[in-house]
Every structure is written in structure tokens, then in C-alpha cells.
Design a protein that fits this description.
It is built from six helices and no strands. With 123 residues, it is mainly alpha-helical. The protein has one domain: Cytochrome Bc1 Complex, Chain D, domain 2 (Orthogonal Bundle), CATH 1.10.760. The longest helix is centred in the first third of the chain and has 14 residues, at 5-18. The chain is globular and about 35 Å long. The relative contact order is 0.18.
């Protein structure tokens, strides 16, 4: 008995869909989610109201040259990896109490995953 490639594909798709926490990220959807950030954050290294986001994934918190960080952000010692970014974008005040980012958070886990996938492309 041989298994056809089509059957394997269906099994993989079904098992991925049934696995909690597994979701495919969409960079284009993440770019759309970034529309909420654009008023304060550039996709380049340029600072505005908020620090530039180029190279954010893997960067240490409060380390963007030339940006004036809040005392709260200066105190925390975070690395902006996917897990930390996910928690911060979901609820910035819970992760860094007293930070000055005027954003209440993004509740949708899929949108956060897509946004982080997009941010990872900003090298």
C-alpha cells in the first residue's frame, strides 16, 4: 500500500490546524496590522514619537540610538524576541508598567503574530 502525496498534504494540514498554538503568519497581514503603529514608529531606524522599528526583532529594549526612552523602559532589561513582542503588543503596560507608549494593546493573537512576522522583515 502506498500513500499518495495528496493524502500526506491533507494529513499535515489537518494536524497543523488541530495543534494548539500553531498558526501561519502572514507578512502582508502583518503589514496591514502595522497601520496601527505607523503614526509613531517608522519601519526604518528613524526615530519619531516612538523609536524606529528597523531591526527590532532581537534588539535589546531601550537601545535605539538617539531615542529618549521613558524611565520605565530604561529600567527593564528585555530582548525584543517574538515572545516578548507578543506580550508587549498585547498589553504594553503589563509588560513595562509606566512606559509612555499610548497604546492599549492588540488583543487578537493572529494579528499580533502577523505583525511580528512583518517586523522580523525590517532588517
Amino acid at each position: 500500500m502506498s500513500i499518495k502525496p495528496f493524502a500526506i498534504t491533507i494529513v499535515l494540514l489537518v494536524s497543523a490546524a488541530a495543534t494548539p498554538g500553531v498558526m501561519a503568519q502572514s507578512i502582508s497581514a502583518g503589514q496591514q496590522a502595522y497601520a496601527q503603529c505607523i503614526a509613531c514608529h517608522a519601519t526604518s531606524a528613524a526615530n519619531g514619537v516612538g523609536p524606529g522599528l528597523q531591526g527590532i526583532v532581537g534588539r535589546a529594549s531601550a537601545s535605539q540610538p538617539g531615542f529618549r526612552y521613558s524611565p520605565a523602559m530604561k529600567r527593564v532589561k528585555l530582548t525584543w524576541d517574538e515572545k516578548t513582542l507578543d506580550a508587549y503588543v498585547q498589553n504594553p503596560q503589563a509588560v513595562v508598567p509606566g512606559n509612555l507608549m499610548p497604546y492599549s494593546g492588540l488583543a487578537d493573537a493572529k494579528q499580533r503574530a502577523d505583525l511580528i512576522a512583518y517586523l522580523a522583515t525590517l532588517k
